[in-house]
Amino acid sequence: MNSTKEFIKELSEKYGKERKSLMPILQKIVERNSYLSVDAMREVAQILDISAAEVYGTASFFSFLDTQARGKYKIRVCKSITCDMKGKSEILKTIENILKIKVGETSKEGKFSLLETNCLGWCHKGPAMLINDEVYTELTPEKIRNVLSEYIRERK
Amino acid sequence: MNTNINKLEYIFSKDCDDNQVLAKALSFSNDEVIEELIKSGLRGRGGAGFPAGLKWKFTATQPGDEKYIICNADEGEPGTFKDREILTQVPKKVLNGMALCAYGTGIKKGYIYLRGEYKYLVSHLQKNIDEFHEEIKKYGIDFNIDIFLGSGAYVCGEETALIESMEGKRGEPRNKPPYPNTVGYLGKPTIVNNVETFASTMIVFRLGAENYKKLGTQDQHGSKLFSISGDSPKEGVHEIELGMSVEDFVREFGDGDTKAVQVGGVSGFCIPRKGFKNAIIGEGNPTGGSTMIFNSSRSMYNVLHNFLDFFAEESCGQCTPCRVGCQQLLKGIEAVKSGEKPKEYLDQLIKLSKTMQITSKCGLGQSVTNSFTSIVENFREEMIY
Ligand SMILES: Cc1cc2nc3c(=O)[nH]c(=O)nc-3n(C[C@H](O)[C@H](O)[C@H](O)COP(=O)(O)O)c2cc1C
Ligand code: SF4
Ligand code: FES
User: Is the pLDDT of residue B217 over 90?
Assistant: First the structure.
């Protein structure tokens, strides 16, 4: 894999070096590195010729543009009303027990981060969660165990 | 007024050739397309309910060539999932609706602003967009659509915040006026319409404006998708003629023990049992189609707490009444519940929420009072004990 610096250069060529390309560029970096490091944001600022504070300002606004180090798999459990009514707390507890991390934390080997999020648009099939871009609905503790064991088993 | 639920099947109907509908619509002149839409009475389906035809007309008449069409697929209102269903099942209806808009207004560039939570839909959508680009060539329409992905911010569903984020900035709503139809994306006139609004324009042209207008009530025309969730054996997306009372709605979709219905999502209103008879869904409440059903096992304090937590988190923080107000309302109900504050404090909180309605910059802060006041007033005891 080439360096983040080269990657950002490629992105700026693909999306253009204008301010309006900022979101897609940041999204692609998060997709690759799972978060935006200070260095990555500085690099983007330089290439788009805007201040690093502007880049951070935009990045920090959006919950999916993580500016803190995150695991390879980001688990986002919906905590809005219908998922809450359908047992989101139990789901969260199950995940915490399996991965031995609490909401907001990343597992030691850097593989999983556990986060909460607002309505995912699957309220009729709650509780719902995302693992990166993948949607999981109608969760039960058993379903969680099955899903997570697949992610855990996967090598690397 | 209809007293019964009239289920319809237009939006998801598979037996209708949308390309044929588009071809039919294109037999009208540009102006006629817009006039037909105005005649149909179709209102925006994203929440605010502005007449779609008028929005197109205002934007079409703005000077200049560089203008944009944006399909708002940010769908962040809790309890709403119909736009996702539309984009999954009948994406061509939305794309053709956008093409119609392009034809009517002469705009050449369109975007679909898709919430980051729906990123899994990108490849499906892109495939449909590629096919669509080929299909409209034969009608001689010069129009091109790109997908723009959001990144997890509810407020970006607000049209000016959406535009700010597309420009690479923080998703903070702008002052209105100017409205996007004069100063929008990159400062150019821009039409922002909801996913379902674009899909509904296809129904207008399938049925004809006259027939479309006959559906619904005096104020609300056509059929509408409702996202139904909560304590209901029939959760999911349902297409229903506008104008039904909450009472009929509950009879059809409730579990027999319905205590309250939240209409219009967290920014909408909570209707308690005693109000079912006189409340009409979509009249005097937002038209987004989120309907959440609560049965008597639910604590309305927990419901309100969840809503306020949502607002406090999703407030962009740009203006003080909303930023501080949301947090104070949340702390306030906690304090009353724990006995730290007397129950009369609830009245002060209601006043605060009304101040937020007047002084907040955008619809987020302005609508917190809807659910707050309707829940606190109707379930006061649950807030205290
Ligand atoms: C806080 C907030 C969030 C909003 N979210 C959405 C949304 O997710 N989808 C949407 O279509 N409209 C949303 N709106 C309404 C838009 O600002 C705008 O009115 C709408 O997209 C216009 O389209 P329509 O006329 O077709 O409904 C939101 C408004 C506010 C104030
Ligand atoms: S009302 Fe709230 S969300 Fe809207 S601009 Fe003000 S702080 Fe931001
Ligand atoms: S409340 Fe969880 S997906 Fe909507």
Answer: no
| In a shared domain, residues B352 and B263 | no
Neighbours of B103 (CB within 10 A): 23
- Position A154, amino acid: E
Return the closest-CA partner of residue A101 out of A60, A152, A37.
Answer: A152
**Does residue A80 belong to the interface with chain B, where contact is any CB pair within 8 Å?**
yes
Q: Which of A58, A69, A74, A60 is nearest to A131 (CA)?
A: A74
SS3 B78: coil
Q: How far is the CA of A129 from the centre of ligand 2 (A)?
A: 27
Sign of CA dihedral A58, A63, A64, A68: positive
Q: Where in chain A is the domain with CATH 3.40.30.10?
A: 73-154
Q: Which CATH number is associated with domain A4-61?
A: 1.10.10
Is residue B361 lining ligand 2, measured as CB closer than 6 Å? yes
Question: What is the ipTM score, two decimals?
Answer: 0.97
User: What is the CA(A13)–ligand 2 centre distance, in A?
Assistant: 35
The CATH number given to whatever domain includes residue B282 is 3.10.20.600
**Phi, psi (degrees; rounded to nearest 5) at B202:** -65, -35
Question: Which pLDDT value is given to residue B35?
Answer: 97
Residue B316 Cβ inside 6 Å of ligand 2? The answer reads: yes
Last residue of a domain, one of B258, B273, B295: B295
Mean pLDDT of the region B316-341:
97
| pLDDT tens for each residue of A73-132 | 999 999 999 999 999 999 999 999 999 999 999 999 999 999 999 999 999 999 999 999
C-alpha B294/C-alpha B290 separation (Å) is 13
Query: Which structural domain, as residue segments, surrounds residue B248?
Result: 223-295
CA atoms within 13 A on the CB side of B54: 7
Ligand 1 center from residue B77 Cα (angstroms): 9
Q: Is the CB of B315 under 6 A from ligand 2?
A: yes
Within this chain, do residues B310 and B289 fall inside the same structural domain, yes or no? no
Average pLDDT, chain B: 95
Give B 278-337 residues with CB within 8 A of chain A. Answer: 292, 294, 298, 302-303, 306-307, 309-310, 313-314, 316
Please tell me the residue having the least CA distance from ligand 2 atom 4.
B362
Q: What share of chain B is helix, strand, coil (3-state, %, to 5)?
A: 50, 15, 35
In this prediction, residue B2 carries a pLDDT of: 42
- The answer to whether residue B130 sits within a structural domain is yes
User: Is there an atom of ligand 2 within 6 Å of B202 CB?
Assistant: no
Q: How many independent structural domains does chain B possess?
A: 3
Of A58, A82, A134, the CB nearest to B170: A58
Q: B113, A74, B112, A42: which is closest to A26 by C-alpha?
A: A42
Residue A10 confidence (pLDDT):
97
Whether A63 and chain B come into contact, CB under 8 Å, resolves to yes
